[in-house]
Fold:
Amino acid sequence: MSRLCLVVLLTLRFPSSLSSRACPVSCVCYEHANLVDCQDQGFVQVPRGLPHGTWLLKLGGNNLTEVRTRAFTGLWSLRVLDLGVSRIQTIRPKAFFSLSFLEKLDLSWNLLTTVPEDFSWSMSGLKELRLEHNNLRRIPQNSFQSLDSLEKLDLSYNELEAVGPGVLRGLSRLRQLYLQNNRLSVVQRGSMDMLPGLEVLDLSNNNVSHIDTEALAPLYSLAVLALDGNKLHNLKFKTFISLHTTATHIQLSGNPWSCDCELHRDFSKILFVRYLHIDDYRNVTCHEPPLLAGYSLAWVDSRLCVAETATVLVITVTVLVTVVGALVMAERNRKRKERSSPSSHAPWSKG
Structure:
């Protein structure tokens, strides 16, 4: 009974003309569910004759090579479009024209190196965009600017070297951003601006060696920050204290940490902040100096500062002893000179 109700609801919400239109050859059309399945059929372009009432279109596993301009014209009811694993190398301008109600677009596991600047044009209703496992090297600054409703963006497993300021502008409703397994080296100030609702930021397994001090400050809702598997040698307390969140869980293991007393102090400060949680602190290991390589920072941190403090104390005591010794010697020399000089108050001899 519940299944019948679901079919009725789908039919009422998305009136379909599937029953009145022929289904493209090699595709399967489920008219009562408004679903068209054209997966793994060797298509080299988007098939023609797709029913206008189609709600979900599966085109994954084909040999499309490119998505042509206005390839989906007339599919006003389309909500979900699967183009994964289709050998797509190029997306032409205005390829997704007319898909104003599209909510999910899957372009994963293709061969894309970039996307057009008007990529998001007419897709203001999109909530989820999957671009993982491509060859993306850059994202033009305006490509995502019309994605006002986007909540999840997956750009993982690509070849991105930077996400510059402005690329994510306009994604005010974004909640999940996946950038793991790219080639990012710096988290730039301004690159995360205008993302007040972002809850998950995955930057793991990149080449990140530096995070600008104010880069994370605009992320008021950040709950998970993954930075494990990068090339961080040290960190700055100011970078993380700039996060004004209720609670943020951070992953930092798998980085080549340079263990010294300064690193220990910064980690200690972060651990002391009640809303910052380093979940994998016990797995944070030293890479330098060689004597500590492979050891957990949590195990060696107190020893680091004991040794450094002892060195500082020795230097301080040495300086104090030297200064005191110099003062004592100066005082002795002064008194010696006073005793050896003729007295200016000697009495006059009688005549």
Residues 286 and 293 are 5 Å apart (CA to CA). The chain has a mean pLDDT of 86. The chain has four helices and 18 strands.
